[in-house]
Amino acid sequence: MNSLFKRLPRNRLAATRRSSRRRLHTQPHPLLATFSRLCVEGPFPAALALLPDLASAGLRAEPVSLTRLVKLCVRHGTASDGRIIHRHVAAHGALSQGGLFVSNSLVSMYVKFGLLDDALRLFDGMPDRNVVTWTTVVAALANADGRKEEALRFLVAMRRDGVAPNAYTFSSVLGACGTPGVLAAMHASTVKVGLDSDVFVRSSLIDAYMKLGDLDGGRGVFDEMVTGDSVVWNSIIAGFAQSGDGAGAMELFMRMKRAGFSANQGALTSVLRACTGMVTLEVGRQVHAHVLKYEKDLILHNALLDMYCKCGSLQDADALFRRMPQRDVISWSTMISGLAQNGRSTEALSVFDLMKSKGVAPTRITLVGVLFACSHAGLVEDGWYYFKSMEKLFGIRPEKEHHNCMVDLLGRAGKLDEALKFIHEMSLDPDSVIWRTLLGACRMYKNANLAAYAAKEILKLEPDDQGARILLSNTYADLRQWTDAEKSWKAMRDRGVKKEPGRSWIELEKQVHVFIAGDLSHPCLDSIVQELNRLIGRISALGYVPQTEFVLQDLPIEQKEDLLKYHSEKLAIAFGTMHAMEGKPIRIMKNLRICGDCHAFAKLVSKSEAKVVIIRDPVRFHHFQDGACSCGDYW
């Protein structure tokens, strides 16, 4: 080194020595250097353990290092560790030295540990706050249960403090808008500051409108977009699906595809649920093609499996179930319930046995599916076995859903007195669902006295429940007790209650056609009636006779036959046979339980036309083929 200095000119030599002394002077203390490295690389416990050593040596860590330590704490530490860091920086001046930088990281830390009140105490003591500070607290309050109004108040305080909200602030707080008026005001604020065109703000606006049930408001925000964005497309699709507008969700999904955007897992799951509700299998199969790129997404595959089961396509469901790279208890439970709902109860119980052999522990949902399988196959002894042993074998205490399944099991088997005894001896208080299940069984077996008792129990719990009155009046009508039926109908008329008409719908070329009992307004009506007459002629040769006892009105036979003829499922079946494709079943969805006459009609049409007809009612599927039904005439 000295020889080198000797060769340098005098002025350069002096400068080099000054630079060398400056480097020696600014060299960080070894303890600080170690601390800084550990805050970047970890391990966290080692970095945390150095805080007392720094304090003893009178050393102050750089704000950047302390912020990194806080982030490490969130990932690998606990709330207690976070408080240790907070006390250290407060005691040794790091909050004043590093100011906002360190304070903001601590506020965020408390929020992420779920310690919102600690975050607010720190927030209140901060001399300075910026948009990051305010936004962290506003977002935390907006996401906390019961504190959404507080989030809105903080937003107002933020603006009074002279801090302008950014896109993330608005995105966070929009979900806290609990009324249309507040949301409209917040929407106007985003427009005023020019942030309404931000993709995340727009997506949050759509979500907020959807949560309030304002589909038109959400659609309006979406339609104002100058250019599309996949985030917003996915948001609007999910919103429509979750709000129950399956048709709207699917229409938007088709538009999204045509616009060249790809759907994310959330949107695909939403569309699959929409397909499930609408029983639009062909659209569901198109969604399946998009699911293939998410090969290991279990949630998405479970939604796809559920869609196939609830659209009555067990062949597709079984193929998917076998190919799934992994299965969880939801996968198994979905398959068990799907088989049971489609009339394949024995197979459902076999899958349950296979599930247990694979070491997968059932949940309460699984056992609801198992008891449903027993109920809809009349397996009374098996149902009792599973119900009585579920706590002992699986540690699952029977809940109301399981008790309801048992009432359904006994009721369907005609054991009405045993079902009533079971209800009275339940360890839980029976709810209206359980009494309604018994009432449905009373109607099936025409027990008017017990039906009246069940209906009174329902009305004690839910005085405005009109379904109970309708079921009771139908029970009286089944028994031709017209005076009692008329009393029930009059009571409903006085209350302004109208019976829900039977509706059936069928998908054809990605369009859903809806038929309503007695409604002859379909544009293809003439052709449908002609086809219906042809079918009735064909099945009459096989022994079909209209079962007029299913018309719950005191009318002449001819009028009863005419009413039966135009039941919604008959119209849908006729429309389906008109457009049936070779090798493809006719799939129909119903809003009400299929009546006995339509059930007989569908069985004979499946034989005369050599077609598979699948009808889904609110509870189960009926697969009609070769003159027989998968329910075994037990529904």
Automatic annotation (TrEMBL):
The keyword Transit peptide applies. Residues 543-635 form the DYW domain. Pfam families: DYW_deaminase, E_motif, PPR, PPR_2. PPR repeats lie at residues 130-165, 229-263, 297-327, 328-362. It comes from the Eukaryota. PROSITE patterns: PPR (PS51375). Gene3D superfamilies: Tetratricopeptide repeat domain (1.25.40.10). Coiled coil: none annotated. Keywords: Repeat, Transit peptide. The keyword DNA repair does not apply. Belongs to the PPR family. PCMP-H subfamily. This is DYW domain-containing protein.
